Amino acid sequence: MTGPKQLSRNHFGSSWVGIVSYYIFHWRKPLLAVFALVTLALTFSATRLEVQAGFNKMLPLEHPYMKTFLKYRDEFGGANRVLVAVRARNGDIFNAKALAKLKAIHDEVFFIRGAERSSVLSLYSPPAMFMEVVEDGFVSGPVLPSNFDGSPAAFEAFRANLLKSQWIGRLVANDFTAAMVSVTLLDNDPEGGGRLDLRRVGADLEKIRAEHEDADFEVEIIGFAKATSDIAGGAAGVLVFFGIAALITAALLYWYSGSLMLTALSLVIALVPVVWLLGLLPVLGLKLDPLSILVPFLIFSIGVSHAVQMTNAWKLEMLHGADGVSAARIAFVKLFIPGASALLANGIGFLVIALVKIEIVQELVFTATLGVSLMILTNKVLLPILLSYSKLSAKDAGKLHGREGIGDPMWRRLACIATPKYAVVVIALAAVSLAAGLWKAREQVIGDLGRGVPELRADSRYNRDVDEITKRFAVGVDVLQVIAEGKEPATCNRFEVLDAIDRFEFLMRQTDGVQSVRGLAGFVKEATVGFSEGDVKWAAIPDTKEQRNQAAGFSTRSGTDLINRDCSVMNVSIFTKDHQAGTLAHIVREVKRFKGAFDNDALTFQLATGNAGVMAATNEAVAAADHWVNWALFGAVTLLCLVTFRSLSITACVVLPLGLVTVHCYALMAQLGIGMKVNTLPVVALGVGVGVDYGIYLFEVMRHEMKSRAMSLEAAFFEALRQRGTASLFTAITMTIGVATWLFSDLKFQVDMGILLAFMFLVNAFGAILLLPALAAFLVRPSRKREEKTA
Fold it and tell me: Which pTM does this prediction carry?
């Protein structure tokens, strides 16, 4: 065998790819040593990688709602709130054991690392007061007095105080079977600095549950931190699915390649960029978010796809008599441009998602783009070097010779699609399919569609807790807070201001999807009734400033979050029945309608704070970016194809099937009730980025055969199917089966992504094999003259 050092540069051609290939194979030993050292170093670095989630990473900080959220978070509380409910399995909370449980949980929540301790609220907190109108005026005091001794009389007094308070449905369940402790979490870790580790918070909450939940009492915990912690716990199962997918891929690769050596090489080369990626993140000071933990698996899947193409090309050259080095060189020269173009398309598919200005999305974009960029080195440089040192055994060669051309009969039948007679049928069916997809895709919505946290399964412990708390408490889990912003201090005691807020509260109570509303105007009316011996006919905003001051003064003494310190800003809390996309969109529309009619120089209504406000802002950010993402994605892929093929007609043949599959992906999301949000937005971009691989690989062969051998389009398509079609179809099926294992995940968002990715991987392959040649039958002419011009 002639070594690469004995070959002159002329043997590698005069093109820049040939020149690059010369230097790669000329210096293959030093390059291989460098790759080995880098892999070892980054493998060690990967052991230091941490998984961390942060609340602020999920916020669209540039959205107007979030500017309001950040401005008033300290005064009216953030959206990162945790609720812990103690529920009696039998009976109610009016017993010593129940109150002891509540007190113990209150104390432990108070000392959770990251808790904003002034925000801890329960029956044992100072703000848990009652107020009663009596003959001599008012009587007020703690609902649960400090001298409570647990006697029957004390429990009767406790019950009476509770009935006089405003805490039923807020701190105590409507049916008295449960009591609640709530706490708002800080953004940063008060001890270690940096972002608060929500996984640790979730673990601390689980310890509280494990300690206090028993045969008599159930402890229910909800909130962003707990949900994120549960998602992170479920994300750990990704490693299991990664292993299962790797085993399935290995088995399929061995069945397809017929060679243990080629199977091992493909798997190793697919794993190397994953190891490099995980190793580089700690070097760059980054951590992996639970919602980005699927990226390494996607990198592995894409790596397998490109490795199969390269090993398949090398195998074909070996079977035609080339030695290992020559076969590796020819495979490199043939596949570098289409392979690198396809990987660039994958990277572009990720990059365009950066149009969504949310940090978690930015991290996902960076992580995925870095992984794809690394693949250009591993798949297009390292793999050919490894192949140059490889050779087929006589046994494997004989086996592969026997299998060569086994798929030719099927490809020969499909090749007729590249003729106008059959192409028109395929195009007609595609047009009908497009119309049906567009009709169904209209139902696709932005945001969540399920109850509870849609990232988790409906029967998960967290979502069961959500159901119990929303069923028994009046405040609901989701709150959208609207800030009534005055222009000067003491705005809150002006009649026209309180009247506008009262009108707003009334409108919100009548709005579909709203469970309850709590604001200053409603509190003032309740206080006025109290000052009027409980006569409900006085439930109105008082005419005099003194009466308004007197009523509003009680709001600051009762520990509510209705007004700020100088009485210039008022908070209206709208508790929603759920956080589904349609619910939030409808409520926000009503708020904006009121805002447009009542905003003036003295008072403006600002959206939004609260967890539902964050979700509404996120939905709007995703909706605003969704169309831009698609336009940018298809624009970039189109430009890339134009640069690669320098032909508008070929570019159209590659891109149009991707558009059809994308429409059907949206239709599938609508059919399955999967909303477009931060978790699912990358799927479409990734599907297009991976799907374009098939078209690029196929047309690279077709163009070459039509140009160099003057083949007809039908013959060139058949040759492309023989050389690239089998490998493309195999990798599509392999990746589809790999992500299909996600259907068994504990994470609902992973299940959703698995369904959508499996659909995109497989259907894009069929789009390239069926629709691409049909379009080419009318758009591409196999004329040598034309082909030379476009090449």
Answer: 0.78
